[in-house]
Amino acid sequence: MMDSNPDVTTRIAQELPYLRRYARALTGSQNTGDNYAAATLEALLENQEVFTNDRAPKTALFRAFHDIWVSSGAPVDEGGSLDSAEGRAQWRLSGLTRNTREALLLQSLEGFRTEQIADIIDVSPDEAAELLSIARREMSDAVRGRIMVIEDEAIIAMDISSIVESMGHEVTGVARTRDQAVKLAKQTPPDMILADIQLADKSSGIDAVNDILGQMDEVPVVFITAFPERLLTGERPEPAFLITKPYSEDQVQSAVSQAMFFSSTETLQA
Fold it and tell me: Which residues does residue 195 pair with via DSSP β-bridges, in sequence order?
């Protein structure tokens, strides 16, 4: 019984909210996700063999969930309203190649490394890496939109804009200050914002994003900054996607694809 190992029991209890979050995102339903999480706990009460391979408790818990998920046929609720960010995310997730949805959410939502994802979904690390690559390509192909860049360094702004445009997105413009950003967002409402933190006139990209989000709903944000510690405040907007300078093209492409694909990660992480 699980009570024979109180340390494992405690760790499972600590990780359970994250399993419920993942289950909700994966199934498209809070009730269905909770039912799968409950079934996972019941299975672990009967058999703890998943913990015998030196797995971390969180990895073991998600592996147990995945076994139950696969055995049930991995159903996804596609009936959500497309008027909501979560409904749109689930509709897009349902169109991904089999197993890429799981790999993608394990990485982007729960922060698992590739080798951990491989263990959870029972594939090789190379196969897990390929599933993530397929998911990113499919995400990039699925969504196109208008992206606003808030960046005061001209060369970096040009580079970011070039990366975004090469992905098929439209850049609405580049703002170098908080006031310019707010004005640009009013003129051409963006589908997504790429923002630096420290701007030309010593104004704040965080404040600019807050101002813009106060005028419109559900606009995903990717912060690209040399000052990541300035986002560790617990205040809105929470940085679902944060890239530290110097950045790579792959980092920008991955973050943009995921942010645009989900429309908002805030709903899935609630």
Answer: 150, 223
Q: What are 225's strand-pairing partners?
A: 244
Distances 121 to 73, 130, 225, 269 between C-alpha atoms, Å:
14, 13, 33, 21
DSSP secondary structure, 192-243, as one string: EEEE-SB-TTS-BHHHHHHHHHTTSS---EEEEES-GGGGTTSPSSP-SEEE
- Per DSSP, the residues of 157-204 read HHHHHHHHHHTTPEEEEEESSHHHHHHHHHHS--SEEEE-SB-TTS-B
Judge whether 212 and 167 are in contact, CB under 8 Å: no
Q: What is the pLDDT of residues 11-27, one digit of tens each?
A: 778 888 888 878 877 77
Sheet arrangement for strand 146-150: 170-175, 146-150, 192-195, 221-225, 241-244
The residue length of the chain stands at 270
- For residues 129 and 247, what is the distance between their CA atoms, to the nearest angstrom? 20
Q: Is the pLDDT of residue 171 over 90?
A: yes
Query: Nearest 10 degrees: CA dihedral of 250, 254, 255, 256?
Result: 100
Residue 246: count of CB within 10 angstroms of its CB: 9
* CB-based contacts of 106-113 (< 8 A; 24+ apart in sequence): 106/22, 106/62, 107/132, 108/258, 108/265, 109/21, 109/22, 109/25, 109/265, 109/268, 109/269, 110/18, 110/21, 110/22, 110/62, 112/59, 112/62
- Mean model confidence pLDDT for the chain: 80
Q: pTM of this prediction?
A: 0.60
DSSP reduced 3-state for 123: coil
For 69-92, give the secondary structure using H, E and C. Answer: HHHCCCCCCCCCCCCCHHHHHHHH
